[in-house]
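Backbone-to-sequence.
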């Protein structure tokens, strides 16, 4: 219980920096999108002061900086390491070329859409990390290991492959293994999202996190707790 409490405490401590990091990653495309959209509106509605090429250049340059500077920095770092043909280099050249020929909105759009895509990808990766951590947290820390035919409770982390464990009805499987008992239904909702129990037959693989639905089962461990 102590280790679980400490783990939650550390997760809570880390929540602040992660939140700040996401906030910092989101403000750039938001700021750029606002300036970009405002520029397009003024350009195509014929706002008088925006008719000046110098004003348009400065405006779109300001819209470019929030999303463009990080990409330019990555491109420069790549070139310093003799890695010239990266996505950062190609996008930087495309944006610079667009500004050079006077197509300022296109130069901003290249970096803006890339930045939005990166932010969405980062969010998806973080969600996947949370799901993986949740799956890891559902493993029991204790396992009933058969010693001379009798179940003996011991930390799951100490159970080595080749040992036989017993899982009672309603119990969660603590380690990956192979089913030694006859066919038995398992609740796999935590792993696959399936609502109906899955019948696993003798010799088939059983994964940590599954729940024995109706009967006690015996499983030969094939992977250590860390895996």
């Amino acid at each position: 219980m102590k280790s679980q409490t400490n783990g939650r405490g550390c997760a809570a401590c880390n929540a602040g920096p992660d939140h700040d990091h996401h906030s910092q990653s989101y403000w750039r495309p938001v700021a750029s999108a606002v300036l970009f959209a405002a520029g397009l509106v003024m350009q195509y509605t014929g706002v008088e002061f925006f008719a000046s090429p110098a004003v348009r250049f400065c405006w779109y340059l300001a819209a470019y900086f929030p999303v463009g500077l990080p990409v330019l920095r990555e491109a420069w770092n790549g070139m310093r390491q003799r890695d010239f043909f990266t996505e950062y280099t190609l996008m930087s050249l495309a944006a610079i070329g667009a500004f050079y020929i006077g197509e300022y909105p296109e130069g901003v759009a290249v970096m803006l859409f890339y930045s939005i895509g990166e932010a969405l990808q980062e969010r998806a990766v973080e969600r996947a990390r949370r799901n993986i951590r949740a799956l890891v947290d559902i493993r029991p820390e204790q396992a009933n290991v058969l010693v001379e035919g009798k179940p003996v409770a011991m930390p799951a982390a100490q159970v080595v492959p080749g040992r036989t464990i017993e899982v009672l009805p309603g119990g969660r499987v603590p380690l990956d293994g192979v089913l030694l008992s006859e066919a038995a239904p398992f609740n796999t909702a935590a792993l696959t999202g399936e609502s109906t129990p899955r019948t696993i037959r003798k010799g088939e693989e059983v994964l940590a996190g599954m729940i024995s639905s109706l009967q006690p089962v015996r499983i030969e461990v094939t992977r250590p707790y860390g895996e």
